[in-house]
Amino acid sequence: MSDRDDGLRRLARELAELVAELAAGVPGPIARGAPRTGEQAGGVTWARAVGGVGATDRPAVAVRQAAAKAAAPSAHEVTAPIFGTFHGAAGPGVPPFVKVGERVEKDQQIGVVEAMRLTAPVLSPWPGEVAAVVAADGESVEFGQVLVLIRAHQVEGA
Fold it and tell me: Which candidate, 147, 144, 141, places its Cα nearest to that of 85?
């Protein structure tokens, strides 16, 4: 094995480590990447999420989720049943399904996720109080993304 081969292997290993580090902290999926070596500069092109919402919106979502969870650490997470667009109300100009501080019953509708003209209701799995509405109305959401936090109430006699 030559010194040139060793140098190429070292460069490839460093590049792989750099890509792994970059991928762990990027704002979304990478569509294309071109590394920088010596005098040659590359770049990264971010993939666009469904619905035209850029991947750069993902860090804001993570920050909102973390802030909401920190404010209500014992609250239960209600997550998106499918990917699509979250709607906190039945339509424009209509009051939201729920507001922070309101009591909800088990299986009460607290939102809807729409994807390709199909809608999936978002139901509260617990009776309790809305601690936070994390997802914004009209926001593109991913399957399993936190939408609402519910402080579950203890059932009397349990």
Answer: 141
